[in-house]
Amino acid sequence: MYAMIIDEYGEPEVFHKAELEPDIMGPLDVQIKIYATSVNPVDWKVRQGRLAPRLPSRFPAVLGWDAAGVVEKVGSKVTQFNVGDAVFSRPATHRPGTYAELVVVAEGLVAFKPSNLTYLEAASIPLAGLTAWEALVEIGKVQARQRVLVHGGAGGVGSYAVQLAKAFGAEVIATASAARQDYVMHLGADRVIDYHTESFSATVYNVDLVLDTIGGSVQDQSYTVLKRGGTLVSIAKPPDAEIAQAYGVFAHWFFLEPDGKKLEALGYLFEQGKMRPAVGHVFSLEDIAAAHRLSQEGHPEGKIGIVVDPGYAMTR
Ligand SMILES: NC(=O)c1ccc[n+]([C@@H]2O[C@H](COP(=O)([O-])OP(=O)(O)OC[C@H]3O[C@@H](n4cnc5c(N)ncnc54)[C@H](OP(=O)(O)O)[C@@H]3O)[C@@H](O)[C@H]2O)c1
Description:
Helices cover 28% and strands 26% of the residues. It has two domains: 155 residues, Medium-chain alcohol dehydrogenases, catalytic domain (Quinone Oxidoreductase, Chain A, domain 1); 126 residues, NAD(P)-binding Rossmann-like Domain (Rossmann fold, 3-Layer(aba) Sandwich). 52% of the residues are buried. The protein is built from ten helices and 15 strands. The two termini are 23 Å apart. By secondary structure, it is of the alpha/beta class. The longest helix has 14 residues. Strands 3, 4, 5, 6, 7, 14 and 15 form a seven-stranded mixed β-sheet that branches. Strands 10-9-8-11-12-13 form a six-stranded parallel β-sheet, sandwiched between helices. Strands 1-2 form a two-stranded antiparallel ribbon.
């Protein structure tokens, strides 16, 4: 299969085209013919070797952890999927990734693609959308009429978190730079704070749930806007338990464990029109180095979609 691989850690220039054998299939695996994938910040953090202690790469390495496409093969014990099914997935991080024509994924990590979305749109959802789901629904237990603060509302995770909190009936306040205010309002935020000119901790209060996608001082100041008994969920930095206790709030950090059933539930919100795909930038797989450079700059509008098969990526 054709893939964009790396043979060493480094800058985006380490990507090059190669022919590889697809991963070996087990009885519970499906092989997906990928029509589209997407870029997440974890991709370039792995490429740089920054995550090697947690996620060591075996070279040649195929990065990328979002896929949308059709089932090409099924293992002997697969029960949920058949050849030809349109699916999407956030594959396991320890196996070869999705900057390739084919990926092998345990069936438990796969879900049917929402029928109203193109493959390119669907591929933007699994990693970022499941992260938002885990933070707000599973851990944060978001509820109608709660006040939710989403940091980085214009980013990949933030774009889905703003919509998800809205879909659950919450009041949503998001932070974003000035150029992204309209974009985040269109996602459904009730209020957008330009973090360059306004300190959120000076004007936001009584918050039930904060999603921290930034860490550092953003996390430190987030405790002050929470009501007692509120919840801080960070995907950027493990919170300090003593500080959380001092403020009388719950504080959590997690690294996403993907799950096909949760992805199916999330996909249903898109199928019902309660959430919209957030693909702000599109590159071809051959141009993956440029897509990484954009992601590394840290200010994408929504997700960076990658076309793997131009014949099918924009079809439903
Ligand atoms: N733990 C996990 O399982 C997990 C899962 C997914 C992602 N992550 C991590 O979470 C982070 C966000 O991921 P992502 O996919 O959303 O990244 P992304 O698409 O690159 O978005 C980053 C966003 O951060 C915003 N930003 C930068 N500095 C900010 C600040 N001081 N205050 C508020 N917003 C700020 C940018 O907003 P503007 O463009 O408006 O400036 C941009 O929208 C990354 O570090 C990623 O690695 C962790």
